[in-house]
Design a protein that fits this description.
Helices cover 5% and strands 50% of the residues. By secondary structure, the protein is mostly beta strands. Strands 12-11-10-9-18-17-16-15-14-13 form a ten-stranded antiparallel β-sheet, with no helix packed on it. It has a five-stranded antiparallel β-sheet with strand order 4-5-6-7-8. The two termini are 31 Å apart.
């Protein structure tokens, strides 16, 4: 999760999703084991706004500390307090648990900071021997655990926008989807992507992206751009001009690295960012026009499936 912008009535967030096809490395206690390489593969990202209603409903990434201190069991909610392991130490935690006939949901928060530490859900009939000691012993389970928080420190964060981005209405892209099958000639499938911006704040924009697959129905998803955006649909040309080539960022948990270099290709000279991992099970390429800063080329390749998705900028509409 990346915090993109903080406004008066909402917080804009982007969630980047990774998949571990070989399974998640776990310790004997069932927690994530940061030792083995998870060989995580980038699968996509989605953006959304967190409102006050999301926070009070337990659907945000945090809860106000004052609310955690005042919380008491009742109205179908069980509140418990105790230590929780986080970042190699024990922290004070407050946990909310809601049980139904065939489901259970639990959210745990750092009682001193309000940050969400864990989220667990389970559904389906209880298995034999489930007496409540292990309330997550259900047929279908999911768990999310906070591993680490950090403040990004690189020139991409908080950078000013190019002039045209302050009045941009839409950006359009054309592309293709291709799956390489050994011994089989598979033609690429045509794609189109339209990004429309419909709401503006002092330092952010909100919109939607609509993707159409050749012969299929369109799919729409939210888009946000703000101070916390590292690689969005634009970067200021001055940022690109002053950026040193080489490693920009590293995520030691996912074993991913983000690098930058200037490359010449069919679209001319671009400032190119490449995100990949140590195992090179995927790579994501973002190429920016050095003159106007527009995102001009995107490619996502997944080695295990042999799939490659590419997009090229087709047009920009401003007010």
């Amino acid at each position: 999760y990346t915090i993109i912008a903080v406004a008066k009535d909402k917080v804009l967030v982007t969630a980047t999703n990774y998949l571990t096809p070989g399974g998640m490395p776990l310790t004997a206690q069932g927690a994530f084991d940061p030792g083995p390489d998870p060989k995580a593969v980038l699968t996509g990202a989605n953006s959304y706004a967190i409102t006050a209603l999301d926070v009070t409903g337990g659907n945000a990434l945090w809860m106000p500390v004052a609310d955690l201190k005042a919380a008491q069991s009742g109205n179908g909610v069980e509140v418990s307090r105790g230590p929780w392991p986080y970042d190699g130490k024990q922290v004070n935690a407050t946990t909310y648990t809601v049980k139904g006939n065939d489901s259970i949901t639990s959210n745990g928060y750092n009682a001193d900071t309000g940050v969400k530490l864990t989220q667990r859900t389970a559904s389906g009939p209880m298995r034999r021997g489930d007496t409540g000691i292990n309330p997550y012993n259900r047929r279908n389970q999911s768990q999310m655990m906070l591993l680490k928080t950090r403040q990004w420190d690189n020139p991409l964060i908080g950078a000013k926008w190019p002039g045209w981005a302050k009045s941009v209405k839409s950006m359009s892209y054309v592309g293709s989807y291709h799956m390489a099958v050994p011994g089989v000639e598979t033609p690429p499938v045509g794609l189109s992507l339209a990004v429309e911006y419909t709401e503006r704040g002092d330092d952010y924009v909100i919109g939607k992206s609509t993707m159409r697959v050749q012969g299929g129905d369109p799919t729409t998803s939210p888009v946000v751009h703000g101070p916390g955006t590292a690689l969005g649909n634009w970067l200021h040309p001055e940022v690109l001009a002053n950026l040193d080539e080489g490693k920009i960022d590293e995520n030691k948990t996912l074993r991913t690295k983000l690098t930058y270099q200037v490359q010449d290709g069919n679209l001319g000279r671009l400032g190119v960012f490449v995100l990949t991992n140590d195992a090179q099970t995927f790579y994501a390429v973002s190429g920016y026009n050095l003159q106007n800063g527009a995102l001009s080329y995107v490619s996502l390749h997944t080695a295990e499936t042999g799939t490659t998705i590419t997009f090229e900028l087709d047009g920009i509409e401003t007010e």
